Amino acid sequence: MADDLSDIAVGTWARLVRVSQGLLGKIETDLKRAECLPLDWYDALLELERAGATGLRPYQLQDHMLLAQYNLSRLVDRLVKAGFVARRRSPEDGRGQVLRITPAGRAARQRTWPVYRDAIQRRFADKLDDGAVERLGEILGKLRD
Question: Which residues of the chain have pLDDT under 70?
Answer without folding.
Answer: 1-2
